[in-house]
Amino acid sequence: QQQVKQSPQSLIVQKGGISIINCAYENTAFDYFPWYQQFPGKGPALLIAIRPDVSEKKEGRFTISFNKSAKQFSLHIMDSQPGDSATYFCAATNGANNLFFGTGTRLTVIP
Amino acid sequence: KAGVTQTPRYLIKTRGQQVTLSCSPISGHRSVSWYQQTPGQGLQFLFEYFSETQRNKGNFPGRFSGRQFSNSRSEMNVSTLELGDSALYLCASSERGLSYNEQFFGPGTRLTVL
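Above: the input entities. Below: the structure tokens describing the complete assembly.
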């Protein structure tokens, strides 16, 4: 049973465009929602994270939008660049140090 | 600071064998978590160790075990290997093991079971 559902599975965006990845969860005990970026041959690296007491968090070109009532959160990548081409994972955790990951989105940014 | 290191990076075993993977966390980090990454199941949590004690465990069979040493280094062991154990095994460390502490991942050990 997938605790965090992620879509789309893959995404192709033109350089300069906006990439949007969506995630949904059911467990209302989740209290921390990080996004990870993974390049081939590397482990995931934390990109940005949010806690449920805020509805949006922005760091540079990356923004998390969080909708607590809908139990959904999304990652927006503004001005997408070819270097952003990677697999992105949303995740959630419930106070313990075990992350429940989404299934991943392979982003390709076309020059 | 040096990042999380995992050894070996690649491993080939045959069914029925056992394997031990090693993880050295970032200096000062006391929590080490292990994850299995496969194309079909994605990233799944195996277990977490904090101060040499297993604190959390995912939904994996008892063939998967681990331990943590006093210097926070961790090992995971898989006994009686099955073809389905072929995966990338990732180790992550964090400072105090709190949910909002950033987890830093190593590059993983690619295990192939033949």
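Note for the figure: Chain A has no helices and eleven strands.
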